[in-house]
Amino acid sequence: MLTDNFGRRFYYLRLSITDVCNFKCNYCLPDGYQCDQPRDFMSLDEIKRLTSAFAGLGTEKIRITGGEPALRKDLPEIIATCKQTPGIKKVAITSNGFKLPEHLPQWLNAGIDAINISIDSLDPRQFLAITGHNKLDTILKGIDMALADGRPTVKVNTVLMREYSGSDIQSYLDWLKDTPVTLRFIELMQTGDNQKFFDAQHVQGSRIKQNLILDGWLPVIQDKAAGPAQEFYHPDYQGRIGLIMPYSKDFCDNCNRLRVSSSAKLHLCLFGENGLSLREQLQCDDIEPIQAKILSLLGDKKAAHFLHDKLTGGTKHLAMLGG
Ligand code: SAM
Ligand code: SF4
């Protein structure tokens, strides 16, 4: 089992398969994707070796992310590869869902277990203003298809921004009345590129949490391995609400995840430095050297991030790493 110097166990891998994205989310890539380094994404073979190495060290869950992972043509093969790796119990994806109705059947055939879709506003005009794309209806249709299929769990990620979701929680509550998804409000995080935006738009999740509790929402009792999200349910609502509050006290105490970028760099923290390359070890089928490298690097994992001091490490935006 992967365990760090602070006793935290890492059974969860966030695997970025590309840093390219077609959206222009105002908090992430406001000017769209800029190709400022050579494309050297991990191949399917490299991904296969990497996931086998992690699974051999106790990893049970893999989340495929990006950039926008659905821009990779071989995404169904990547999902199937992760799913078929002995020891991996759950394969999830985080996507902007730009073609969800078209992509969903392929993802389901490949064995996807959980789908997280990012929707930062339920108002089509605001959605367009935030992402640069008029895709809300398509995405909601895809979510309905996933719910009707019944196999994958469906979560929706919403970044809290003062101007949008931060001031319009009611539309989400109305939606959750009859929609059995878990909606996760994520506090906007500062990155290297978004400092001004962050200063103008950051709102704390704690206010939402207080209001939910006043309105009768109850905390879901989660097991220790559940990670840093806090989740709530309400007997009158089919959906649940999660809060991800990276600026809250002790947020990093429950860290259960490691990250690998699309160029095969291990990131011990979302806001660490530039990543530690596993590329050389990924060139042959023997997974022991890959495992030895991961274990030797894990000792450098810090107790917590330094976001409170406005230190964002090497992370210019989260499309680099997948959030
Ligand atoms: N493109 C996919 C998507 O948007 O779902 C996957 C990659 S995206 C980087 C992963 C998640 O990070 C999304 O839910 C996105 O909203 C969130 N995210 C990106 N930048 C963020 C920031 N500065 N603060 C908080 N969440 C952010
Ligand atoms: Fe793309 Fe996701 Fe970043 Fe939006 S949040 S720009 S969809 S990577």
Q: What report would you give on this structure?
A:
By secondary structure, this protein is of the alpha/beta class. It has one domain (12-320): Aldolase class I (TIM Barrel, Alpha-Beta Barrel). Helix content is 29%, strand content 17%. Strands 7-8-9-6-5-4-3-2-1-10-11-12 form a twelve-stranded mixed β-sheet. The longest helix has 14 residues, at 136-149. The two termini are 23 Å apart. The mean pLDDT is 95.
List the helices and strands and how they pair.
Elements: E1 12-16, H1 44-56, E2 61-65, H2 75-84, E3 90-95, H3 100-110, E4 114-118, H4 124-131, H5 136-149, E5 153-160, H6 169-178, E6 182-187, H7 195-201, H8 206-214, E7 218-219, E8 230-233, E9 240-244, E10 257-260, E11 265-267, E12 276-277, H9 288-298
Parallel strand pairs: 1-2, 1-10, 2-3, 3-4, 4-5, 5-6, 6-9
Antiparallel strand pairs: 7-8, 8-9, 10-11, 11-12
Helix pairs in contact: 1-2, 2-3, 3-5
The structure holds S-adenosylmethionine (SAM) and iron/sulfur cluster.
